[in-house]
Every structure is written in C-alpha cells, then in structure tokens.
Amino acid sequence: MKVILAKQAGFCFGVKRATQLAFEAAGKDQKTYTLGPIIHSPQVVGKLEGLGIRALDSLDGLDHGTIIIRSHGVELKEITEAQQRNLDIVDATCPFVKKAQEHVMSLSKAGYGVVVVGDADHPEVQGIVSYGGEKVFVVASGDEVSRLPKMSKIGVVAQTTQSFENLKNVVGECLLRGGEIRVFNTICDATAVRQEEAKELASQVDCMLVVGGFNSANTRRLLEVCAELQPRTHHIETAVEINPVWFEGAERVGVTAGASTPKWIIDEVMNKIEELNKSD
Ligand code: SF4
Fold first, then answer.
1. Residues 89 and 32 reside in one and the same domain
2. Residues 226-265: pLDDT tens digits?
3. Which residues line ligand 1 (CB under 6 A)?
4. Are 109 and 58 part of one and the same domain?
C-alpha cells in the first residue's frame, strides 16, 4: 500500500507563527493565558495547558500576567481591556487578519461604509468588524448587498478564508449601487491551496484520511471536498482513531491535514499507517 501525504498538509504560516509565540511565552516566568483557544487544535491547546498556559473565555478578574491573542484575532475592545488591566500582550494575530482589521479601521476613518465579506458568526469576522465605526456590515454573499443602506462611499474587505469568486460577486453588487468603491483583497490562499491539493489527491487514491481538530472549520471543509471525490474519506484528530479496516483492499492511501494540525500529529498518523502496512 502506498501512502501519500499532501505537500501542504498542516500548519499555515499564521498558525505556525501563533503557536511558536505561545510556546515561547510558556518559557517566561509570569502567568500566561490565551484569549480563547490559540488555534483550533485541542492537542496544541492541551500541550500549552501542560506548560501552564490556560485558555480563558474572558479577562474577568485578571490584573497581571501575559495574554496571548489567538491567530484569528479578537475584538478591539478586548485588546483595550487587556491594556487597561495592565496585562502584557503577545499579539499572535495572523498578519493577514491584522491587515483586514487595519483596512476596516482606515476605511471607516476616511468616511467609507464598510462591507466585510464573510461569516458574521465567525470570531475572525467579529474581530475585523470591531475595528470599524458604526457603518460596518457583514454580508455572506452578493445577494445580501441589496439589504444594505445607501452609501456614497463603500469599502470592501474579506474574511481571509473567503473564495475569490464570492468577493468578486459582492464587489459586483456594490458597483451596481454606484458611488465610490474601494476594494482590499484580504483573502489568504492558504486554505484554498490546501483544498485544491486535497481534491487532486482524493481523486487518485482508494482511501483518504483528513487529520485535524473536529472543531476546525478548515479541516471540516477539507473533509467535505475529499468526501465528494472519495467516499472512503475519514476524519481523525489523532493516530489512535485510525481503524485498520479502512485500508482493506486499498493500494493507495492519501493523507491531508487542516491548517491548524501540528506536524507531530501528522507524523504519528503516517507512522501508524506505515506500521499497519508492515504488519499486513
Ligand atoms: S489561513 Fe491564512 S489568514 Fe488564516 S491564519 Fe493561516 S495564514 Fe493566516
């Protein structure tokens, strides 16, 4: 049985950077926390907990220590609160997310109504929106632009994981409403590249494994695109969940992993499949 690992499997740039910053902070001698889980990997969060870094839901009751801001950012009021509480801040917000936040802020200051293309319930979007003034609106698609109030100047930014197609549709609808439009393409292609590669791999193998947190949206999306092409696709968080039955009769097995899956977990999965391969 041949086992093929997707080239882009695992940590993207922003998640890698955030995780490194968190592990570096763990070496310091003051109490350290993350605001929400640093990334969507229960195993990484568990490791950090073992090093004394706890994930908090809020800053309530905190008056000293270090707070690490997660890779997809937080709301501006939470940064302000951390400053008011005199906490040391390690900002692990991905620079691509940061860019989107900065564009919303500067567009709002320049008098633009801002349209954020994305999922209103996603914490990254809630963080981005918080950097604007009163006239910031989230739309999931072009169809939703018609319900927005009239604006003479419109600025458009996107949640980093949006598709280019969707951004284009929203911009097209904004153009139909006239006025002045400024568009910032804040899409990061890390997730799209992983999905394209996973699709290609899933179509070439007899069984596909997608490794990543069950709470990770980008991992679940990888699962969906693979399952569309390969019915024998399985989602696991760690190697212990592998069921040898999955590989019966398979000549080629593909493995991919979400952008928040650490290398050590991917290595364990690859080793486990190789072990099963040898014992056949
Ligand atoms: S997917 Fe892109 S924007 Fe999101 S954390 Fe990774 S590098 Fe940053």
1. yes
2. 999 999 999 999 999 999 999 999 999 999 999 999 999 9
3. 12-15, 71, 94, 96-97, 160, 188, 190-191, 259
4. no
What contacts 249, CB < 8 A, 6 or more positions away? 206
In which domain, by residue range, is 114 found?
Answer: 96-183
**How many Å lie between the centroid of ligand 1 and the Cα of residue 96?**
7
pTM: 0.89
CATH number of the domain residue 86 falls in: 3.40.50.11270
Rounded to whole angstroms, the Cα distance separating 47 from 49 reads 5
Q: 119-166 pLDDT, tens per residue?
A: 999 999 999 999 999 999 999 999 999 999 999 999 999 999 888 999
- 100 CA to centre of ligand 1 in angstroms: 12
Last residue of a domain, one of 79, 94, 109: 94
Alpha carbon nearest to ligand 1 atom 8, residue:
14
Whose CA is closest to 182, among 157, 201, 150? 157
For the question of residue 124 being annotated catalytic, the response is yes
CATH number at residue 216: 3.40.1010.20
Sheet hosting strand 32-35, strand order edge to edge: 54-56, 32-35, 66-69, 88-91
Q: Which of 19, 39, 70, 71 to mutate to test the pocket of ligand 1 (most atoms within 8 A of CB)?
A: 71
Domain boundary among 125, 150, 183: 183
Say yes or no: 157 and 230 in one domain: no
Residues 178 and 202 in one domain: no
Contact 78, 101 (CB under 8 A): no
Q: How many structural domains comprise the chain?
A: 3
Query: What confidence tens digit (pLDDT) does each residue in 75-115 have?
Result: 999 999 999 999 999 999 999 999 999 999 999 999 999 99
Whether 273 and 195 map to the same domain: the answer is yes
